[in-house]
Amino acid sequence: MLPIALATLLPLLLSPQAPAISAPAAQAAGPYEGLWDTSYGRMRLRQSGDAVTGSYAYAGGSQVAGTVAGERLTFTYSEPAARGEGWFELRDGGQHFEGQWRAEGQPGWSSWSGRRVQPVAGRVWLVVLEAYWESDLAEAEYSFGDMLQSYFTMSAARHVQVRHRFFHDAEDFRRLCGEVAYLAEPVVLLISTHGTPDGIGVGGTTIDAQVIAASTRDASNLELLHLSGCSMMSGSVPARVMAQIPADSRFPISGYRASVAWDASAISDFIFLSFLLIHRMDPAEAVRQCRLVAPYTGDQRLDGAAFDALGLDVLMPGDVARAGATQSN
Q: What's the whole-model pTM score?
């Protein structure tokens, strides 16, 4: 049986509205911008003027950077155990490229080709990365991601693809976050774990702002990073994450300012995610709507309320830009 508060809200949450957010145009910033299926795994490229940067999935995550002249991209690449140079040339009206690469210090060239990955219209991803909650065998298993996967099987959420993975440490976190960039459509990334004002808790350690920023900076398809844990919006972590990401790559970051109870935060996340993924509201509007329909998600506890106030909040990229401008004046 659903909690009474959630059951009351279901008619509102399951009435989809016209999408407010759409997938970015694949070639909006230049002919190499976007996602490619290549000889060495999926590759996400960003183009600004004639400069191109990006990452590709080979060897657990590798980097590429170069310059475009006409339809040719000349680049250098770096992998965990190798580096080198190469070039691509566009074919088929920008839908395909052919090229070559060679390792540093080696005379021979090898082929490298790719084809543009077209996003599925209307599709959006919810990626749940979850730390193990149990500390010993006496504790029953618990998984928030399993509940979310079941919730988003409803007919109103057929456009939502849910992926749920557990992470054990910072290395796991980096690897899984890196894979977000290789999805073709917009992604909401939810981190389900114990949290503190200093960052994400896992295995008795804390993943700080520097690691979070480095792990997500290549995901230009990231629509929102939701830190679903205690107090992670109460410190400087969200602002520091955003400050370490280039301005044109920044994404909204949401979470809670207060220490949150299991049931209260679960109901809140279901409501928030429904507004984001079914109603396709932007994050700021989704927070505003949550505070209207579920006042305990706001900043003050109501008289007689069973739940403490959660302080659900979102930091938008423009908020950081305005804060920086104010501090510099």
A: 0.88
